[in-house]
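Collaborator request log, item 7. Partner lab (contact: R.S.) asked for a structural prediction of Carbohydrate kinase to inform their binding assays.
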Amino acid sequence: MIFAIGEVLIDFIAKEELPLKDVKTFEKHAGGAPANVVAGLSRLKTPSALISKVGVDSFGEFLVEKLKKEGVNIEYIKFDREKHTGVVFVQLIGAKPEFILYDGVAYFNLKIDDIDFSFLERASLLHFGSVLFAREPLRSTVFKVLKKAKGKIPIGYDVNIRLDLWRGREEEMLRDIQEGLGLADIIKIGDGELEFLKEYGIDIKNFDFELLAITKGERGSEIIHRDIKIEVPAHKVKPVDTTGAGDAFTAALLSALWHMDKLSNLEFTREELLKIGKFANLIAALSTLKRGAWSVPRIEELKWYKEAKEIITGIKFLP
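Returned to partner:
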């Protein structure tokens, strides 16, 4: 089972293509990068679970019910009586998201006492992202969990920088990201984030990872394993909503590793990396054809795509 730790929240997506101050109507969707990933994993027939926290409120109930309906294991999600469930407002002008994210919410209040470390006995990988470092006590909790997991199971990291959460604390952000990179075995990062880190003298390729996936939008992705480096072309579509495309890519990447039984050794041939990259690019592209961050296609919808068949053939869940 693949576990993710971190935020689960409500995405309020603007229905009008106007500045957020002028928008009158929003659609409610489940979101939060780690939650998006585990929901995507479940849709790709990969067992998944989320470690997180929601408020004792209607939104918290909605999110837990949605995750359960998607087939995600919810037993590691706690309810918080101190903080409300997280929300974010999203504008999709030009299909490129603009976010207003609020802190002081339940997932940032995840404490070490909330963690049931028995999950390590069930986990084949632990996934996390950089948003977790932005506020305490979540930051300290996550680093303690990662350090306890290190060496026991592979760790996946989506760098996923949200600068609005770090205003005036950029040095702290960079320090935490570097510590996260040092703990990760599998890293996913966007090309813009890669260049941002380079401007501050951080070259991600100097870290000791087993697999690095660099997403490049319309230009596809680059997959690196030790001295093997491959460029994977994008799957071309006309996007409607790119909100969860990066998380869809991550879900597909991890799902491919799980289905190919690669999480136990993280050894890859060039051909295997190409299959993994094609699958991740395909799922990311198809996810942009629907609104909302939980738009990963279900496995049954993929039977017509060669890029999917290369990963899922023989797994006994295609009709």
